[in-house]
Design goal:
Layout lengths: L2 E5 L4 H12 L3 E6 L17 E5 L5 H11 L3 E4 L6 H6 L1 H21 L7 E7 L22 H20 L3 E6 L2 E2 L8 H13 L6 E3 L5 E2 L2 E2 H13 L6 E3 L5 E2 H11 L4 E4 L6 E4 L5 E5 L17 H6 L8 H20 L1
Parallel strand pairs: 1-2, 1-4, 2-3, 4-5, 5-6, 6-11, 7-10, 8-15
Antiparallel strand pairs: 9-12, 13-14, 14-15
Bound molecules: NADP nicotinamide-adenine-dinucleotide phosphate (NAP) and guanosine-5'-diphosphate-alpha-D-mannose.
The site of guanosine-5'-diphosphate-alpha-D-mannose has 22 residues, from helix 3 and helix 6.
């Protein structure tokens, strides 16, 4: 039976990947911070093949003990300070976790002599492309990171490539474009919007405040992206792959569709910080811009090209942009109604 270790098991992707690997017969081990407040681990599938270990990516000794004990066939490194806006407030912590944390895992694999035994997946990001000069972005597009988060992930990306080339570790980077789900935290714009649309439609909230409405992102569903992670480690050779939906949509467009799913038609009026989303039926202002959500430097256009992953891994996305929004809003309305009752 194959053993996998997932760091960041309590996060959005951790939960979907756990389900996938359990369904494939893996023994799944998860690294969890003792201080984790995430509820995701409580809603993990009941399985005698699922084991949780306390540990931190900032602490080599917990990594060493956990990896030595499990001797995993595969490690999926999903743990991170994953919030781009927060990385401007905590740049040093973000670097320690998102950059040096990855080095700590790779060094552990090397020091324990597991180079030939343990395959490694790194959750890399389209944020590496940042201030893009060409679209769509693929594996050959130059990197131009625009935040402390993206710069930490740049180190993580290259140290993964380096340990593959220097020590022959089966190590892969998944250059993941934005992926969301019903488990996404509200600190990210999609879930903030779907929860707000749901609350507003049920009379539980008056207004939604957003930052940059013009950012264009390439959004998919976490279930599809975690499948790509698994496929990368089953490939014959280790490599790096872009995983994306191949479509780009603005934050404004996401909000319009989410409100429509909640039964509200928005029309947009005004420009810049004065732009507003107005309910066409009632004339009420439901969405406003608050500059406190602007970032010191922004990534304005993301559009991925996953043809390499489709060709080599046989990967394809199943959940469309509209289906993603439909699932998130439906989930949020149903769970709020349940709470209310
Ligand atoms: P997420 O929901 O924010 O999950 C992050 C995970 O990291 C949580 O389980 C968190 O645990 C854990 N973690 C945080 N600090 C840790 C530490 N010091 N030691 C150990 N674990 C720690 O993120 P996600 O959306 O699932 O993303 C998974 C990975 O993919 C991340 O590395 C992210 O940067 C990358 N990525 C995501 C996207 C996307 O659109 N979702 C796109 C590109 C790349 P707690 O419960 O303790 O907080
Ligand atoms: N969070 C947030 N909150 N973002 C907002 C808001 C708001 O109120 N209003 C507008 N935005 C814009 C942000 O400025 C950004 O351009 C876009 O919405 C998406 O922001 P997030 O949802 O926070 O995601 P992200 O793209 O910065 O980061 C996510 O995707 C990356 C891959 O592109 C995270 O999952 C990262 O971990 C991941 O690497």
């Amino acid at each position: 039976m194959k053993k996998a270790l997932i760091t960041g098991i309590t996060g959005q992707d951790g939960k979907y990947l756990t389900r996938l690997l359990l369904s494939k017969g893996y023994e799944v081990h998860g690294l969890k911070r003792r201080t984790s407040t995430s509820v995701n681990v409580d809603s993990m599938p009941e399985s005698e093949k699922l084991f949780i270990h306390n540990g931190e990516l900032t602490d080599s000794s917990s990594l060493m003990q956990t990896i030595q004990k499990i001797q995993p066939d595969e490690i999926y490194n999903l743990a991170a300070q994953s919030n781009v806006a927060m990385s401007f407030e905590m740049p040093e912590y973000t670097a320690d976790l998102d950059a040096v944390g990855v080095l700590r895992i790779l060094e552990t694999i090397r020091i324990l002599g597991l180079e030939k035994h343990t395959k490694f997946f790194q959750a890399s990001t389209c944020e590496l492309f940042g201030n893009v000069k060409t679209s769509p972005q693929n594996e050959s597009t130059p990197f131009y990171p625009r935040s402390p988060y993206a710069i930490a992930k740049l180190y993580a990306h290259w140290i993964t490539v380096n340990y593959r080339e220097a020590y022959n570790i089966f190590a892969c980077n998944g250059i993941l474009f934005n992926h969301e789900s019903e488990l996404r935290s509200e600190s990210f714009v999609t879930r903030k919007i779907t929860m707000s649309a749901a609350r507003i439609s049920l009379g539980l909230q008056d207004k939604l405040f957003l930052g940059n409405l013009n950012a264009n992102k390439d959004w998919g569903h976490s279930e599809d992206y975690t499948e790509a992670m698994y496929l990368m480690l089953q490939n014959d050779t280790p490599d790096d792959f872009v995983i994306s939906s191949g479509e780009t949509h603005s934050v404004r467009e996401f909000a319009s569709l989410a409100f429509r799913e909640a039964g509200i038609n928005l029309e947009w009026s005004g420009e810049g910080i004065n732009e507003k989303g107005i309910d066409t039926d009632t004339g009420r202002i439901l969405v406003e811009v608050d500059p406190k959500f602007f970032r010191p430097s922004e990534v304005n256009l993301m559009l991925g090209d996953s043809s390499k992953a489709e060709r080599i891994l046989g990967w394809k996305r199943h959940v469309t942009f509209r289906e993603l929004i439909r699932r998130m809003v439906k989930h949020d309305i149903e769970s709020l109604k349940e709470e209310k009752n």
